[in-house]
Amino acid sequence: SLNYQVHHSPIPSLQTNDTMKTVAPLLLALLPTASALRKVLTEGGKLDENGQRELMSFTVIFEECVGKTIAECEALIQADVEANPALFEDRASLNYVEHKVREDTDNSYFKVGLRTNAQETGVAGILGDGMIFYPWDWCYPDENGDGTPECRQIGPWDCDVGTPLTVEQCCNMIKASVPNADVHGNYLECYASYPVGSVSNPVDYGRVTLQVNKDGIVVRPPRNE
To answer: Which of 25, 71, 211, 214 has the most other CB atoms within 10 Å of its CB?
Structure first.
């Protein structure tokens, strides 16, 4: 099933709220009846900085891709693009970006992802509240002499102290809380992660990111954004 969310791009020809109320049902009528429409956000009628009304742009969430191979997912998305060109700004196809989800066996397992805000001036975290999480235990060398590493949960860390900390400040705080190397001799490090809509990662409705596991299976619903 598909999940459609409405975003906006300015268009001069739409001049009234009544026009927006007319356009939205027409666009939605293009959806195939077999698709389950979960949520549509309609906030039309807003004025942009030039005094023009705004038209909706669609972000489509391709939930049917979860559990499919990359090739199967791309074929499903292409079929949706061809069946509903108006939802994709009349594009003939979309561009795909493959992103492997992190696992504790990856070479970069010791790095903590720091999601920034859209302005990239501070750390926002994946929930937007400044909290940073590390998904695995941190395993120290054998401390008890029995040959078994001692693994402990680390984090979460709050990188919003009234004002969001910068990536460097947040990372320094995190590393100070876990100063010792793990069983493999690695120290905790950080990397910046930029959200869609940020300076380094602007919105692109012609782009679809496929989150896949090590076997090339899609594990999260992709979307064009």
So the answer is: 211
pLDDT tens for each residue of 30-78: 454 334 332 223 333 344 566 554 556 788 999 999 999 999 999 999 9
**CA distances, 167 to each of 60, 175, 180, 202 (Å):** 31, 12, 21, 19
Query: What's the CA gap between 65 and 32, in Å, rounded?
Result: 17
- Kindly state the tokens that stand for 7: 């975003």
Residue among 112, 217, 117, 104 nearest 165 (CA): 117
Say what the pTM is.
Answer: 0.74
Residue type, 89: E
Helix (H, G, I), strand (E, B) or coil at 83: helix
Q: Which pLDDT band holds residue 149 (cuts at 50, 70, 90)?
A: confident
